[in-house]
Amino acid sequence: MQQNALLARMHATLDSMLADIETLVRCESPSADLAAVANSAEVMARLGTERLGQAPERIVRDGCTHLRWRFGTGPTRVLLLGHHDTVWPLGSLDTHPFGVTDGILRGPGCLDMKAGLVLAVRAIAELDDRAGVTLLITGDEEMGSPTSRALIEAEAAGCRAALVLEAAADDGSLKTERKGTSQYQIRVVGRAAHAGLEPERGINATIELAHQVLAIEALADPGAGTTITPTLMAAGTTTNTVPAEGELSLDVRVRTVEEQTRVHQALLGLRPVLDGARLEVLGGPNRPPLSASSSADLFARAQVHAAGFGLPPLTAAAVGGASDGNFTAGVGVPTLDGFGAVGAGPHADHEHVRIEALAPRAALIAALMAEILAEPSRTGRRPSRSEPRDERVVNDPRRITEKTAPGHL
Ligand SMILES: [Zn+2]
């Protein structure tokens, strides 16, 4: 792909990209409102069908609508991953209207991540051969992806790369590392007693929790990036009773699976300190880390493309927050995140997108995808004439649905 020509074409389609972002931003899609998410999926489906010449599959899980465009079957496969839900409730357009001024685009969910979806569609549209590309756009990322996680993991499996369309870091950096998360509840059962008459007969759950909090804090290893934050804690029933029960919540963040496992084992190994107290540890890992090793190769290649486009050097950011990229990295697929729009303030009043960065970012996505797709598959198999290489003319959703392998979801 000729790099200057590609970048020039992206700049030439900027007005159309802005119009598409406006269309998506004006369709509010708070994750918890399934009807709004379904409506947003239709708007996204129409827009994508128009730009890509192929309708998506609509995949509804527990009422939540996800969209999937699959182009051909490979031999090398790349996943572009995004979400069309936002954290903004219905009516946010009244307080945070869509607008473009001085090179800045604003509106609820513009950065996280409606602009990223438009970049992905634009990048796919520019590919000479899109066989092997899947664009998956889910509807519940902002809720932790309860209904889409299995879909994401199944779609990522076997892909050469997953490119995630979450916003870049504020300085435009790609997100090459995201911590994994675990959540726990520590329950203590002691014994109630009257605090005045016979406190010595009680087993104080508050004191047991106090012992445990400090023991748990000692398991953290900030140098290795492992934080353990005791968050909610409660015990007891009245002010004059030795507390019989108590509970503590923990937020655990880790940079490696080894640390996630170490903390998990250590928490399961906690023992009560007070005679007669019982301890129960509930919960565990819920998102694996996206480690630097998952993204290193893709990031290095993206840097080369950025230089080829004459863009400023690409930089990398390690962040504590998780995304769906954690799931794709967790199933062993090289993953690069923060490939969406550049701006600032996701989820915040000042959420915005920098327009000047849109065309270069779309060009970068297209160039990296094209490079990966041109590689032979891991088995060295080349596409044969009989294999579908491009489905851009297929417009019948039924036909596409029939191509879905049973159990693939
Ligand atoms: Zn997001």
| Bound ligands, named by name, code or SMILES | zinc ion
- How much is the average pLDDT? 91
Would you identify the regions where 5 or more consecutive residues have pLDDT less than 50?
380-409
Query: How is the largest sheet built, in terms of strand order?
Result: 1-2-6-3-7-14
User: What would you report as the Rg, rounded to the nearest angstrom?
Assistant: 24 Å
The tally of helices reads: 12
Topology pattern, helix = H, strand = E: HHHEEEHEEHEHEEEHEEHEHEHEEEHH
Indicate the overall shape.
elongated
Largest sheet: 6 strands, mixed
Distance between the amino and carboxyl termini: 33 Å
Percent helix, as a range, is 25-40%
How would you characterize the overall build of this protein?
This protein has helices spanning 3-12, 14-25, 34-52, 92-95, 110-125, 149-156, 205-217, 257-268, 292-308, 325-330, 358-373, 397-402; strands at 57-61, 64-71, 78-83, 99-101, 104-106, 133-138, 161-164, 174-178, 180-189, 227-235, 245-254, 278-287, 316-319, 335-336, 343-344, 352-354. By secondary structure, the chain is α/β, with parallel strands linked by helices. The strands form 4 sheets. It has a 6-stranded mixed sheet with strand order 1-2-6-3-7-14, with helices on both faces. It has a 4-stranded antiparallel sheet with strand order 4-5-16-15, with helices on one face. A 4-stranded antiparallel sheet has the order 10-11-9-12.
